[in-house]
Amino acid sequence: MYRPSLIIIAFFSFLFLSGQQKPMGNDSTLIQLNEVVLSAKVIFGSKFVAKNRTGSSYYLSPEEIKKFNYTDVNRTLRAVPGVNIYEEDGFGLRPNISLRGTSPERSSKITLMEDGVLIAPAPYSAPSAYYFPTIARMQAVEILKGSSQVQFGPYTTGGAINMISTEVPDNFGIFLNSSYGSFQSGRIHAQLGDSRKNFGYSVEYLNYNSNGFKNLENGDNTGFDKNDLVAKFKINTNPEAMVGQEFEVKLQYSDETSNETYLGLTQEDFDADPFRRYAGSQNDQMNAEHFQLMGTHALKFSDQFRITTIGYYNDFSRNWYKVDYVTIDGERQGIGNIFGAPNEFASYIDLVKGSINSGANDLLNARNNNRDYLSTGVQTKLDYHWSGENTYHDLEIGLRYHYDEEDRFQWIDDYAMVNGDMQLVNPGVPGTNANRVSSAKAFASYAMYKLKIKDLTLTPGLRYENIALERLNYGTNDVERTGSDLSERQNKVDVFIPGIGFNYNFNDLSVFGGVHKGFSPPSNQPGENPEESVNYELGSRFSFAGISGELVGFYNDYSNLLGSDLAATGGTGSLDQFNAGEVRVQGIELLLNYNFLENNEDLQLPFTFGYTLTDTEFLNSFGSENDIWGEVSSGDEMPYISKHQFNATLSLEHQNFELNVSGRYNGAFRTMAGNGPIPANEKVNSNFILDLGGRYRFNDHLAVTANAINLLDEKYAVARVPAGLRPGHPFGVYAGIELRY
């Protein structure tokens, strides 16, 4: 294991060697800390600010997002050190994202935002991200890790991701992007917008769809179809107004139909054909709708003082209809158990495959995972800054009142398997499988003070969260919700979350770091404690000999890690959490940038390399509920986290064209806690995936695009949970056209 002392020694050795380099003059990639008051909808707003934050951060610019024309957020984020992802469906519909070793399941342990507003379906009461904003319509993505995270919560351990939707343009413009390619995959993305002196608007539409790359024997579609519509309208006072004001309304609607399943493959079947889908998954389908209403009001009293208030309303409904259980001779087993021990449950798997017909008491049990989510609230940010002689001061205060809920009203349908076709035999009664409402009321506030004295910047801060969690379980015998069999439970949390960061600038080198408290809310189980940790980081941004980059060491000391009972990771799907005790997560993040043709007037050849080492260790022994992590012993590694990963991107850029190639290595990871060599039945092997993207511009108005995914056509598994192996995206080629006016 890499002890903290070794990380610190390696880090300071690097600083010493870097300091011996002859200064190369002021490099634009390392700029002195600026004094800019940012919009409440962004964390950084630009690479300029991100590179000077008193904490590790990354800003994915519009240019970076467009390089490969991705619709998959997994592929977009893979270039960022410290981001650990395991895929699920190959299209990025429901990502599993970890920042610095947080549990990645459904991205539920990081603060997810769109335009500065919490965007998970129910961020406090049910944060699992079954809804995730479409990356293809985003203008930029901001990733904050490490210290000074008191501004963004409630999840402060690993960090925050903020997706910035397309802004209202400064001038009249029309944009159209359309592409088509492998697996009958298509995309159309259009935007129209304009701004006048006191009014601006933007209307945007995105559809992307595919027939899917997996194969059912009956030839049914295994793909998806997703629509996204966003409209923004803003009004503002004249620039010369004594008190400047701006009000923007944002409306967003999306719907999705995806023929996705939790059923994977046995190892034997995966080796024979990784893109096979079993007959038992032929009716599995997710149907979802999301609606957002957001109003933002900004008051600018002066260049030094402004207040921004945002009111938001997010409504998300989904029904993921999928086989969750199999019954043989009247004995029912969950699909996670079946595929965890395929030899023991061979007859169950035969029924799932459709290789045998149902007997009198043999059934496939399909659950209507019907849930409605609500997330609403109002938040205010006050920013006041002033300057003294050789000093700069900024005080930021934020307040938020938030309410969210998850309403489960579920039932199970029973099917017989007849000659490879599923036939409905017992339709279920809605509400007889799950019939409960979980909710949360939360008040959050923070204060952060930024003090800059010459080249030193300090950012102490304090966050406060007051959370009341509740669950009303009406019971499966009271589908009318009369309250005749009602059970209630509550849990409350009251916590202060401190943090402090620093940054010191030299000519071509800066040193930054800090310490902050990590926090994740518990569930509504009475007496359950929140997840807590103390997190440290020490890093440097540097520029010498044409190479710029960042090196960071981090150490997260958990006093109480929480695991979650998610169906996505082989659990029951109750969302109940359980204590996992003390854990240490530490690692190194490295980012390097170099332009091989920096002095060439016609061509540029930038190269970017990112590497992440994530080392995890449980410090106590326990048995996790429902075998989600298995039997855990002190010294075991956490599951679902790759120890090593790297990404390299090389681009050839010209005024008229660009060609981009990206290679990603994702190290092997285990699906159960353990140490030493990973057992074959608990291992997801490493993979190396090469992608290609290109664009040719005929003029300012017309361009053609092309990209290839998995250029080497590597056959690889992305997950072994919840029920068998699932493949990554195979080789695919896509071409399109862009029109701008």
UniProtKB/TrEMBL annotation:
InterPro entries cross-referenced by the UniProt entry: Beta-barrel_TonB, Beta-barrel_TonB_sf, Plug_dom, Plug_dom_sf, TonB-dep_rcpt-like
SUPFAM superfamilies: Porins
Membrane topology: Multi-pass membrane protein
Pfam short name (any one): Plug
Ranges for domain TonB-dependent receptor-like beta-barrel: 286-711
Cross-referenced PROSITE patterns: TONB_DEPENDENT_REC_3
Record Gene3D superfamilies: TonB-dependent receptor, beta-barrel domain (2.40.170.20), TonB-dependent receptor, plug domain (2.170.130.10)
Domain TonB-dependent receptor plug: 54-160
Entry keyword set: Cell outer membrane, Membrane, Receptor, TonB box, Transmembrane, Transmembrane beta strand, Transport
Compartments it resides in: Cell outer membrane
Spans traversing the lipid bilayer: none
Sequence similarity: Belongs to the TonB-dependent receptor family.
Family annotation (PANTHER family): FE(3+) DICITRATE TRANSPORT PROTEIN FECA (PTHR30442:SF0), IRON III DICITRATE TRANSPORT PROTEIN FECA (PTHR30442)
Descriptive protein name: TonB-dependent receptor
Native organism taxonomy: Bacteria, Pseudomonadati, Bacteroidota, Flavobacteriia, Flavobacteriales
